[in-house]
């Protein structure tokens, strides 16, 4: 090989190695923030993930989305996470009893309301229709936040006994409730009003204003998480003006809004 050709090969190899090293450094420089969030937060938290990463180059938001009670079980067993966003207070309390939280990081950040959900073409217009014998009703289980909210609302409506008699399934998340309805395996269920935005084949029937049940979402940063500083920054983004705007765009309301 001619000296000039040999030089070109050496230079090319050196440049390639430099590029590989640079990419390796960038990969190592990537910071990850692990966020556990309730299933009902799936759409807004994917939007928050994109918005946060756009403002924080080099930060990768990793979402774990499932029923709050399932996420809490994982956290109690020691799963690594920086932020936990729960669909209710009780489930966050369960984690707080077993894991260390960053002081002052616990915040209520969103609210939601319940609706009776039925197929869009269903001949179902009144809550009293839930009493109809043979109606197939699906709820989330009593250990799931939306399942607890649903049972509290039904109790206030005097419909608990009738609905329990028609109950065909207890699901482990609100996504399971929606899936049963979309597949035609149930005639009615209770879910969050925001869920209807992602389920065009379903419609909601509002609960009367006298029903004093609203979902309250809380988040906290785990002090023993992999990157608590990043967790605090992401939590601040969610509770700040930009994060709250994203949540409103997806149908969530501020805590206390519409109450009283």
UniProtKB/TrEMBL annotation:
A single GO BP term for this record reads:
molybdate ion transport
Keywords of this entry: Metal-binding, Molybdenum, Signal
The family annotation for this protein states:
Belongs to the bacterial solute-binding protein ModA family.
Q: What is the lineage of its organism?
A: Bacteria, Pseudomonadati, Myxococcota, Polyangia, Nannocystales
**Highest taxon listed in the record's lineage:** Bacteria
Q: What terms describe the molecular function in GO for this protein?
A: metal ion binding; molybdate ion binding
Task: Respond yes or no to whether keyword GTP-binding is given for this record.
Answer: no
Annotated residues for binding of molybdate: 40, 68, 174, 192
Q: Residues of the signal sequence?
A: 1-29
> Could you tell me which Pfam families the record lists for this protein?
SBP_bac_11 (PF13531)
Q: Which InterPro entries match?
A: ModA (IPR005950), ModA/WtpA (IPR050682)
Q: What is this protein called?
A: Molybdate-binding periplasmic protein
